[in-house]
Design goal:
By secondary structure, the chain is α/β, with parallel strands linked by helices. It has helices at about 10-20, 35-45, 50, 90-110, 120-135, 145-160, 200-210, 215-220, 225-240, 285-305, 305-310; strands at about 1-5, 25-30, 55-60, 75, 115, 140, 165-170, 170-175, 180, 190, 190-195, 245-255, 260-270, 275-280. Helix 7 (about 200-210) crosses helix 8 (about 215-220). The protein binds nicotinamide-adenine-dinucleotide (NAD) and (2S)-2-hydroxybutanedioic acid. Nicotinamide-adenine-dinucleotide binds near residues 31, 101, 119 and 120. Keywords: NAD, Oxidoreductase, Tricarboxylic acid cycle.
């Protein structure tokens, strides 16, 4: 199985490294616009193979998309990350143009691929990918909720001092500081809802930490995060290549689900060899529905910025 990752920066290279280390694909091709950069990252990763013991072949290419031919999955991580104090939405001007070029180039060589979009602003870039490729909606997946849910589980585990593996939690909505919706009502510790033993105030605090999880790391690092994002993308790639049928919150193109049409937003998805195989509709209460609707409105507003690029 072959995965191409366009953008060999922090997230792209981390994703390649995790895929190789976990043996998720037999071949990974990294592509970048900067001369020699993808080749260098690939060589560095390959020099782990002898000691880490993996068989995946990772190679790099400067803008030569013929090397990506016949990929099963194409991951799009090209584009600028935010700096401290910025929102993801502010990246649209630069990133929409980059996403358009790289997707057009990758699609020429991999007409059957499933595209996993990572570049921010995520939900809007996923919509751009759908419009640019004209692919069926199951083959465009926005990676946001997998990462946000992983952060939610981390903050729950920290706050309530529970092992992360015993904690479940899902984040839906937009992949934005104010549009994310950590579903505290559905969060559980070993099957027991946190709401049965934790105060509403504590859960609200965890939800707030989760929503600004990316901004917090951007402030600490001076650029946005990459380890958890790279691992989350690899998790999605694994679900596709190995037909896992796992439920993962992803940005998906809704066609009536959750009462929404023609918009990418984070919802629980079943991922398998066909990409998004179905969307799971949770029974949201009025407060959750109100948050979801506000998230939809915010994404619609950001999507207006695409008209300059896509018409
Ligand atoms: N969806 C998420 O959860 C999530 C998580 C983390 C980062 N991101 C986003 O992913 C993107 C990448 O983040 P990063 O930290 O890896 O940034 P980075 O700057 O480390 O890497 C981006 C790479 O893209 C390359 N690039 C730019 N234009 C290109 C083009 N036309 N063709 C090929 N390569 C090109 C750059 O040379 C660079 O190497 C950002 O937009 C960031 O906001 C999203
Ligand atoms: O925070 C960012 O800008 C990058 C990414 O979306 C993240 O959540 O880590």
């Amino acid at each position: 199985m072959k995965v191409s990752i366009i953008g060999a920066g922090n997230v792209g290279a981390t994703c390649a490294e995790v895929i190789a280390n976990r043996g998720i694909a037999s071949e990974v091709v990294l592509v970048d616009i900067v001369e020699g950069y993808a080749e260098g990252k690939a060589m560095d990763i390959m020099q782990c193979a002898a000691t880490s013991g993996f068989d995946t072949v990772v190679s790099g290419s400067t803008n030569d998309y013929s090397k990506t031919a016949n990929s099963n999955v194409v991951v799009v991580t090209s584009g600028i990350p935010r700096k401290p104090g910025m929102t993801r939405e502010e990246l649209i001007g630069t990133n929409a143009a980059i996403v358009k070029t790289v997707i057009e180039s990758a699609l020429k060589f991999s007409k059957d691929a499933i595209f996993v979009i990572v570049t921010n602003p995520l939900d809007t870039m996923a919509l751009a990918a759908l419009k640019i490729t004209g692919l069926p909606k199951n083959r465009i997946i926005g990676m946001g909720g997998a990462l946000d849910s992983s952060r939610f589980r981390y903050f729950l585990s920290q706050k309530f001092q529970k092992p992360m593996a015993d904690v479940e939690g899902l984040v839906i909505g937009g992949h934005g500081d104010t549009t994310m919706i950590p579903l505290t009502r559905f969060a559980t510790y070993k099957g027991v809802p946190f709401s049965e033993f934790a105060s509403e105030q504590d859960l609200e605090e965890v939800a707030k930490q989760t929503m600004v999880g990316g901004a917090t790391l951007t402030k600490l690092l001076g650029t946005s995060a990459w380890y958890a994002p790279g691992a989350s993308v690899s998790y999605i790639v694994d679900c596709i290549l190995n037909d896992r049928k796992k439920m993962v919150p992803c940005s998906a193109f809704l066609q009536g689900e959750y009462g929404v049409k023609d918009l990418f937003i984070g919802v629980p998805c079943i991922l398998g060899k066909n990409g998004i195989e179905s969307i799971v509709e949770f029974n949201l209460n009025d407060a959750e529905k109100a948050k979801f609707n506000a998230s939809v409105e915010a994404i619609l507003e950001t999507n207006k910025g695409l008209t300059n690029f896509l018409g």
